[in-house]
Amino acid sequence: MSDENSENGGLQRTIDWKQGLAIALGVPVLILPSIGYFANYVWAFAIIIWALSVFQGFMQNFAYGELATMFPKASGLPGYAQSVFTSQDANRKYDRSKLLGGFSAWSYWFAWNPVLAIFSILIGSYLKGLIPSFAGVPDLALYLASGAVVFVLLILVNYRGLSGGATLGYILAVLSLAPLIIISLAPFITGDFEISNITGAWLPADWSWDVQHILILLGLMAMAQWSACAWETAAIYGPEYKHPKSDVPKALFICGSICLVTFILVQAACTGTLGVEGILNEPFSPMLPMAQMTLGPIGGSLTILMLIAAMVLIIQTAFLGASRAMYSMAEEGNLPRFFGKMNPHGTPVNAMIVIALFNMGFIFLGTPSAILAASAIGYVCANGISLLAYVKAKFDPRFSKLERPFKAPAGWQYVAFLFGIFNLPLCLIGVIYLNSLEVGWTSTIVGFVVLALYLPLWYYSQNESRAILEKNNSQSSESTM
User: What is the pLDDT of residue 6?
Assistant: First the structure.
């Protein structure tokens, strides 16, 4: 199978479930930009939101695990939706079903893409608080420098294929979980953790369960799933697993179990140690004062450096996921062929370069929460459409004979439908409302503009594909004459 892929110049089957898990283990780090954001709105109740969101991830990933084994050549969520929403009329110039599948993939690409900019900003923020000599460096310059260094490094590391990135992932996986766990467990050992900081501050005093606050809660759930459900990224490497039928479910659910523990632990430790006010005093980097409080200046600094290495891992996870989403779209004819061009090692290097440049532009926004809010719009669209794709795959006779080595529990199409509706429209409406409270309409406008950019790219790709087909047909006719 790997030989066939290699000959065709496609993605190559070079990794096992442990390597896929290693790459996806950067996901727990996604909590970092939201610790202060969530505490600002719901205080200690943020712990419950993370638990509910990881539970949502399990419900959704049962469906994604089955889709992964139904379409073993598809590249994660982008590939599943495109495989289900395929054109049934080859003669139709612009097929709406194909457009919908491609739009889902584009939404997923937009969900992962800004991770690079968000964590480049966070790396710069942590470095500035850690290294006194950086105090006089303008924030934007530090963010751009950290982004440029990380992007170039990851392009070079992954240039020779995913297995090289997975090797780096093994190393960084340890470096990602270790600081999160060390910093989060330290307050319990040192006695700095105060349970009263949680039990006495569950929700703001003015919180009520009216329409406005429910919309805020839905918006936070949209933001939370961007982080806590993102371990489905383990399935995006479906075409590159040696044994996708067994590797995908293993990587997915082991990573999910780890996320369930870490997301709850990190938010609870920060709240119990610093209190809500302490978190809000350092909303971008609350792990820094907690580490210095419990581990001392030297120990705190060392663990924060490890945490920065963890941020590099999640940037790598996003880099690989976003580049393969673009490759998948180009392969399906939903993006121009330029984005599907592979180097001799099977790496979609053009897509990686475009993504790096895109994120350097995003860094100019300078605010992680605004970037994340825009990105969450893409993520709820991708999840909503992908879950509905699963429902369609369960009922459409075209897919009834496909092999399904991993099956979700019986009747799971109805569960998937409910979560699909939860994403679209409920979470989408919630995050739009939350954006209007937090940063005005900027994030919403940016989110919808980026999503709308897909339409001209899609129409161009359809015309490009048709022109290539006509050229090939013309050459075939001439050769037969």
Answer: 38
Spatial distance between the Cα atoms of 325 and 318, rounded to a whole number of angstroms: 10
Cβ burial of 450 (10 Å; 0-12, 13-18, 19+) is buried
The DSSP bridge partners found for residue 439 are 441
Residues of the chain with pLDDT under 70: 1-12, 87-91, 161-170, 172-175, 236-239, 476-481
Q: What is the predicted pLDDT for the residue at 14?
A: 76
Evaluate the omega torsion of the peptide bond into residue 179 and state whether it is cis, within 30 degrees of 0. no
d(CA 362, CA 359): 5
Burial bucket for residue 400 (CB in 10 Å: 0-12, 13-18, 19+): exposed
Instruction: Count Cα neighbours of 309 within 13 Å in the Cβ-side half-sphere.
Output: 19
Cβ neighbours of residue 121 closer than 8 Å, sequence gap 6 or more: 143, 146, 147, 284, 363, 366, 367, 368, 371
Q: Which pLDDT belongs to residue 215?
A: 97
- CA 188 and chain centroid, separation: 31
DSSP state at residue 202:
S
Q: What's residue 166's pLDDT?
A: 54
Burial of 244 (0-12, 13-18, 19+ CB in 10 A): buried
The candidate with the shortest Cα–Cα distance to 105, out of 422, 456, 408, 382, is 382
| 110 conformational bin, left if phi > 0, alpha if psi -120 to 50, beta if neither | alpha
Q: What is the pLDDT of residue 169?
A: 58
Length of the chain: 481
Class of the 2-466 domain? mainly alpha
Q: Is 211 helix (H, G, I), strand (E, B) or coil?
A: helix
Is 441 in a helix, a strand, or coil?
strand
Which residue stretches of 332-398 are H helix?
A: 349-363, 368-395
